[in-house]
Amino acid sequence: ELPLVESGGGSVQAGGSLRLTCTASGFTLGDFDMAWYRRRPEHDPGECELVLKIDDGVPGYVNPFVRGRFTIAHDSAKNQLYLQMNNLQQRDTAVYYCAADEFLFTGCRPYKYFGQGTQVTVYS
């Protein structure tokens, strides 16, 4: 069983919404910092950008390109992490990953827990 599994991706018209879910297994998500990352088509393999993060249980970093449109939330009872994405734009097209580790940074690194990703495609 994979420790982190993302779901909820898909294709959506610009201006629409999606909610991504990250389900953790085998460990307690809330014991770590948590975040959503994304790898857009123009990124090099292995490169990605931080979207939103929860530090010590409190929402922290917000990517300027998603400010006011995306929110992050954690449900400790369900051991899940969510990413609510509203007013999606074509630039948001990417593979979205959830991650958990003691420390999370603005780029991709070999984090302790890192999901396999879910594709989000925004069309005009």
Describe it for me?
- It is a single chain.
- By secondary structure, the chain is mostly beta strands.
- Helices cover 0% and strands 50% of the residues.
- It has no helices and 11 strands.
- The chain has strands at residues 4-7, 10-13, 18-24, 33-39, 49-55, 58-62, 70-75, 80-85, 94-101, 113-114, 118-123.
- The strands form 2 sheets. Strands 2, 4, 5, 6, 9, 10 and 11 form a 7-stranded mixed beta sheet that branches.
- β5 and β6 (58-62) form a beta hairpin.
What do the pLDDT scores average to?
A: 96
Q: Return the string of H and E elements.
A: EEEEEEEEEEE
- Biggest sheet descriptor: 7 strands, mixed
**Hey, roughly how much beta strand do the residues contain?**
over 45%
- Low-confidence stretches are none
**Judging from the principal axes of the Cα atoms, what is the shape?**
globular
Distance between the termini: 37 Å
What structural category arises from helix and sheet content? mainly beta
Oligomeric description of these chains: single chain
Number of helices: 0
Q: Strands, helices and their partners?
A:
Blueprint: E1 4-7, E2 10-13, E3 18-24, E4 33-39, E5 49-55, E6 58-62, E7 70-75, E8 80-85, E9 94-101, E10 113-114, E11 118-123
Parallel strand pairs: 2-11
Antiparallel strand pairs: 1-3, 3-8, 4-5, 4-9, 5-6, 7-8, 9-10, 9-11
Keywords:
7-stranded mixed β-sheet; 11 strands; 124 residues; mainly beta; globular
